[in-house]
Amino acid sequence: MTSQPTQQIPGVYHRKIGDIVVTAISDGYLDGSLDVMRNVDLAEAELLLKAQFRPARRTSVNAFLIHSKGRIAIVDTGSGNYLLPTAGFVQRSLAAGGIDPKSIDTVLLTHMHPDHSAGLTDMSNGQRLYPNAELVMHENEPKHWFDDGAMAKADERARRLYFQAGREQVLPYKDRTRLFAGGEVFPGVTAVPSVGHTPGHTAYLVSSGKNQLMIWGDTVHVPEVQTAIPDAGMAFDTDLAAAAAARKRMFDRVASDGVLIAGMHVHFPSFSRLRRKGNAYELIAEPWVHAFE
Ligand SMILES: [Zn+2]
Question: What is the pLDDT of residues 40-49, one digit of tens each?
Answer without folding.
Answer: 999 999 999 9
